[in-house]
Write a structure and sequence with these properties.
Length: about 260
């Protein structure tokens, strides 16, 4: 059986939406169970969890079905990568030791069938958004992380979830405003001046799309698993965006987005 590489981002497990987190988690587990036999590798491209923090002896409750399925897949010998996003940048070694995933922070470069691919969640890349870039430095500050770890988990998690949910209104209003305003597309275009990639694969924006950066390179956003349930598949040199919204794998078509492009 021909192997495929899968890319998924912005699941935000633990987030309360019109589709409950547990329902979305069960759908994701069903999807992973279907693809595990023909998956060469699986990349989760950030914001897997709406919040994740590891104390020395404590981790967030929940997500047992998802974590169990990932452990099953890695036990089968399928490499699974977790790339940290802005909601789960505090992943350390627990998930690597417990379920066998490979945790990465920042950009990840790989080559599949001769095609060069750059993968990143996308937060903080490109020009602008100086406020968030400053916030990201705070999030990664080792001393401040140590200080936060001194808080009792009940209090620390309550603060984090309140902050995450307060940002949700802003993030649900994300819309595609054209190539000239799509900052990750512009980042890919600028990056090509110094290093070539066939595909730039990002999450973060929650808008599933494939745009040509030049005649060969493509910018890809994987969308999300909150309402659209989209994901990327690389198979035989071809990259496609698909959806699992109806409990089966289908090609993704967004007529509104196509009109704007």
């Amino acid at each position: 059986m021909k192997k495929k590489t899968y890319f998924i981002s912005d699941i935000h497990l633990g987030l309360t939406t019109i589709i409950p987190s547990l329902e979305r988690e069960k759908l994701l587990v069903k999807f992973l169970d279907e693809i595990k036999k023909n998956a060469e590798k699986i990349y989760f491209v950030g914001d897997i969890f709406d919040f994740w923090w590891e104390y020395k002896f404590v981790v967030p409750r929940g997500f047992i079905r998802f974590l169990g399925k990932i452990a099953e897949i890695t036990d089968m010998g399928v490499p699974v990568f977790f790339i940290a996003g802005n909601h789960d940048i505090w992943m350390r070694d627990y998930l690597e030791k417990e379920i066998g995933v490979i945790v990465k922070h920042g950009e990840l470069k790989l080559e599949i069938n001769g095609k060069k691919i750059l993968i990143a969640h996308g937060d903080g890349l490109g020009h602008g958004d100086k406020a968030y870039k400053l916030l990201k430095k705070i999030f990664y500050n080792k001393f401040l992380q140590w200080c936060y770890s001194r808080l009792h988990p009940n209090f620390a998690f309550a603060i984090a979830y309140k902050w995450s949910h307060s940002r949700r209104k802003k993030e649900t209003q994300i819309k595609f405003a054209g190539k000239d305003k799509e900052f990750l597309y512009l980042y890919a275009k600028e990056r090509l001046k110094t290093e070539y990639f066939d595909f730039f694969v990002f999450g973060h924006r929650h808008i599933p799309m494939i745009l040509e950066v030049n005649n060969n390179a493509k910018y890809i956003n994987l969308g999300e698993w909150i309402t659209k349930f989209t994901y990327g598949v690389f198979d035989n040199d071809k990259f496609e965006i698909k959806t699992y919204c109806n409990g089966k794998q289908e090609n993704y078509t967004d007529n509104i987005l196509k009109k704007k492009l």
